[in-house]
UniProtKB/TrEMBL annotation:
Name of protein: DUF7705 domain-containing protein
Domain of life: Eukaryota
Keyword Coiled coil attributed: no
Residue stretches making up the DUF7705 domain: 35-507
Taxonomic classification: Eukaryota, Viridiplantae, Streptophyta, Embryophyta, Tracheophyta
Protein's organism: Buddleja alternifolia
Length: 511
């Protein structure tokens, strides 16, 4: 009976344009010279675009988890207003539930796994789990895509990663080249065969909730422990756990992304980031065509990142909570990356918020320091200048594995945890970063100190040291991935919990 009424009621669907923020120009309390680089400026768009991806230690799939499909899924919907047909007044449901969500990606599509065809898939990807996931992401992107200027965009991306590595299986390449079996090696956790598995991924599709049906809410959640009983959430057992729950009042404010990440004995090294990735090309650490949120790729030095971060639980002493984690790619000669895994180098820059993270760059041992520090006034100080170099401002620097002219002493970055060689520069709260709006003291912005950050990421990232061959033309630093979230590093039973709201990236408008 009720069903019949519903179908009458839903005959006329009007797109609720007012609920969708169309304007990408941010005018409030900002100069008109800045525009948003992300499709969903400030996370204010009711009709959410969100996806999730999961990576193994070298940013691949490796093996799918039974019944889960390929580890790429999305929650993308549009909102329509249900209104009675003209002359019909008996649409009682329309009054009590005036909006409907139409999901653009259905469960069957989210569960697609290797071997199952979808529109546009290549023959090669049908039998290769890694290529399959990459093409599935592109396919999901086509369902979620929003037309916009200067470019269409697809979704925010939740990234999951486990640091487990089976060194004897030689699954991950060594600086982009085929690896040989080795180990066991204490650098890489592994409980035995199958330790690099993908997590369980469960999905509560976004629905309208609350007393007035005006609260949009949904979640992705799961565990890497395949025998985990998730009915009790993370509290019932000592298994790993993650959840991302998003909610928003219809037509008001920002989405609130609430994240939980818990490590276990079998999975002690886990990551969960909220990413804004490029909408095409490669993104940080991803060597396949990507889909994302960045309708404009921010380029140093002219961009800012704004968001509100509330850290509720930190993830323990070895949690590297990244206030900002950004990825780019250029070759050591300064040329842009082209997909050649032996000469492309992923460049990561990270600000670690956890006050317990020590500096490993020391005045009497500077092998883990960048070659020089540049002050905002342009003054450059070599790391051997013990009177002036700010050692405490750096957690560590490691050089690309394929760089030929790195000054001694140096430490090369882990050759396995990225599909190609990588370079990592990690900074800590310190007065030298104050000029860019970054934390200047340990503990700032940490638990109990929720903050809205307005970070001059562009100018800071322009000033940071990154390796290039002597005499080469400096690379233009284009950041195809701007993320935040924790990397809990090799510590079981640790919990991190945090919320992110109002995320935005602002770039100087080009006339
Ligand atoms: C629900 O609607 C009633 C009546 O309009 C209003 O008083 C109340 O505050 C609303 N509640 C929520 C949670 O929006
Ligand atoms: C998913 O939905 C179920 C049923 O409404 C609920 O019990 C559970 O708490 C939700 N899980 C998450 C992580 O939001
Ligand atoms: C979980 O681990 C903690 C610390 O290792 C231990 O004290 C507790 O008993 C364990 N709980 C369960 C349910 O195994
Ligand atoms: C990749 O780069 C390396 C180092 O520059 C070069 O030797 C090799 O020929 C390149 N491979 C391809 C396929 O271009
Ligand atoms: C630049 O800044 C550094 C650090 O504040 C300071 O020591 C130095 O004197 C400044 N140089 C000039 C030329 O102003
Ligand atoms: C510091 O290193 C630079 C570059 O290698 C070198 O020219 C300079 O002499 C060194 N200074 C000291 C004090 O060791």
């Amino acid at each position: 009976m009720a069903r019949r009424k519903v179908s009458v009621c839903y005959i006329v669907l009007t797109l609720v344009v007012v609920l969708v923020s169309q304007s990408s120009v941010v005018s409030v309390s900002l100069s008109n010279e800045y525009v948003s680089a992300v499709g969903d400026s400030g996370m204010r768009r009711d009709a959410l675009r969100l996806a999730i991806e999961s990576w193994n230690q070298c940013n691949e799939v490796g093996e799918e988890t039974p019944n889960m499909g390929s580890p790429r899924a999305a929650d993308c919907f549009d909102i329509y207003k249900a209104s009675p047909q003209q002359g019909q007044n008996e649409c009682s449901l329309c009054k009590s539930m005036p909006y409907i969500l139409v999901h653009r990606v259905i469960e069957k599509e989210n569960r697609l796994g290797v071997g199952q065809p979808f529109e546009g898939i290549s023959q090669e990807a049908l039998t290769n789990v890694n290529l399959y996931a990459a093409e599935k992401e592109v396919y999901l992107g086509s369902k979620c895509q929003v037309e916009d200027k200067p470019k269409p965009w697809q979704f925010w991306m939740i990234m999951l990663k486990s640091g487990n590595m089976d060194t004897k299986a030689a699954i991950c390449p060594n600086n982009g080249q085929k690896a040989s079996p080795f180990g066991p090696d204490t650098r890489f956790p592994c409980f035995g065969k199958g330790c690099m598995n993908q997590p369980l991924i469960y999905h509560n599709y976004t629905t309208l909730q609350g007393p007035n049906q005006t609260m949009l809410k949904g979640s992705f959640y799961g565990s890497w422990d395949l025998d985990a009983d998730l009915r009790k959430g993370m509290f019932g057992s000592n298994t790993s756990y993650y959840s991302v729950t998003w909610e928003k009042q219809l037509g008001k404010g920002s989405w609130i992304f609430h994240h939980v990440l818990k490590t276990s004995v079998k999975y002690p090294w886990l990551m969960l980031y909220l990413r804004s990735d490029a909408t095409a090309g490669f993104s940080g650490g991803y060597h396949y065509p990507t889909r994302g949120m960045l309708k404009i790729i921010p380029e140093s030095p002219d961009f800012k990142v704004r968001f509100t971060l509330n850290v509720i639980k930190g993830g323990g002493p070895s949690s590297q909570f990244y206030l900002m984690d950004m990825g780019s790619c250029w070759k050591n000669n300064g040329q842009p990356c082209d997909g050649n895994e032996t000469s492309d180098v992923t460049r990561y820059s990270e600000m670690i918020l956890n006050p317990e993270t020590p500096s490993w760059c020391h005045v009497d041992d500077f092998k883990l320091c960048p070659l020089y520090h540049t002050f905002p006034n342009g003054t450059r100080v070599h790391r051997n200048d013990t009177a002036r170099f700010p050692y405490e401002a750096y957690h560590l620097y490691c050089a690309p594995g394929n760089a030929e002219y790195v000054e001694e002493p140096n430490v090369r970055c882990d050759p396995y945890s990225n599909p190609q060689p990588q370079e990592i520069l990690q900074i800590l709260p310190h007065p030298v970063w104050g000029d860019y709006g970054y934390p200047t003291r340990k503990g700032e912005g940490w638990i109990g100190d929720s903050r809205t950050w307005n970070l001059d990421v562009g100018r800071l990232s322009q000033s940071l040291y990154f390796y290039q061959d002597p005499g080469s033309v400096p690379a233009s630093r284009k950041w195809t991935s701007i993320d935040l979230g924790p990397e809990i590093y090799k510590a079981p039973n640790q919990v991190a919990e945090w919320t992110v709201t109002d995320f935005n990236i602002l770039v100087a408008r080009k006339y």
